[in-house]
Hints:
Layout: H1 10-17, H2 30-39, H3 43-62, E1 64-67, E2 70-73, H4 74-101, H5 107-120
Antiparallel strand pairs: 1-2
Helix pairs in contact: 1-2, 1-3, 2-3, 3-4
Amino acid sequence: MSFTYDPSTDSGKVRLLISDTQDTNHIFEDTEIAAFLEVNDDPRLAAAMALESIAVSEVLLLKVITTQNLSTHGEKMGRILLELAVSLRTRVDQDYAFDWAEMVTNSSSEIDRIYKQFLRGADI
C-alpha cells in the first residue's frame, strides 16, 4: 500500500484534481493512479476517470442511507462527481480543439505555435 503526493508529477496532478492529497484515508494507491495515467496520457483525463470510479463506488456502496439525524445519498454524490469528470474532459477537449485550430504556414508561424504551446504547458 503506497501513497505519494507531489503536485509537480502527473500522479500528483491527478491526486490534486480529485482531492486525494492526504496520506491518511487516501482513496487510491499509487498503482491505481498509475493505471489511470496509463490509459489516459493527460492527467486531467486520468483524474476524470478516477472521479468516475469514485462516483460508481458512491452509488453502489452508499445508495440512500438514513440513520438517526444523518443521511447519505450516493446517487446525488455520484452525479456531482460525474459532472466534475465531464468538466475535466470538456476542458481537455477545448485545449485540443484550440491546437487543431492553429495554422502553420511557414517556419515563423511554427515557432510561434511552439511558443504558445509552451505557454499553455502543452507537450511539444
